[in-house]
Amino acid sequence: MSDAPLHLVPVRSREAKDFVRTWHRHHPPPAGQIFAVGAADERGTLRAVAIVGRPVARHLDDGATLEVTRTASDGARNANSLLYGAAWRAAKALGYRRLITYTQDGESGASLRGAGWRVIASRPPRAGWHAPARPRADHGNDHVTRLLWEAL
C-alpha cells in the first residue's frame, strides 16, 4: 500500500456500502445514511470511506446529533483520521452540534484520537436482540464492550 497523500472525495451511498462490504472487518454496511465521504489517492483510487447517519441509539437521536456508523479502509495510512475529521466538519456545516461513534473492545481508537475525538463513555456488552419468539441475527457487536466517542 502506498503512503502517498490522500484527499477527500464525495462518495455515493451505493459505492460507500460496496466499499464497506469489501473492506470492513466485522460489520455489514449500515441500513441508511445522511452522507458519506471518501479518501482517494493521487490516482483517484478510493482507499477509505466513512458513512454518517442518524444515531443508532434512539435516545441519542435528538435531531442535532449524527453518528459515524461505519468507516472502512484498505489499510491506507491516516485514512480514517482524515475521514473522522472531515465527517465532523461536514456535520457542523450541515448544522449538527454533535457527532459520535463507537469502537469495540480491542480497537485502539488511534484514528479517532488523531482526529481530535475523545472517549465519553464505556458501554457494557449487550446480550443481543435474539429471543425465541423473535429470532434476530447477530450483527457482530453483541457480547462486546464498546467505547462511545465524541468529536471535539
From TrEMBL:
Cross-referenced InterPro entries, in alphabetical order? Gp66-like
- What name is this protein filed under? GNAT family N-acetyltransferase
Q: Which organism is it from?
A: Streptomyces prasinosporus
- Lineage summary: Bacteria, Bacillati, Actinomycetota, Actinomycetes, Kitasatosporales
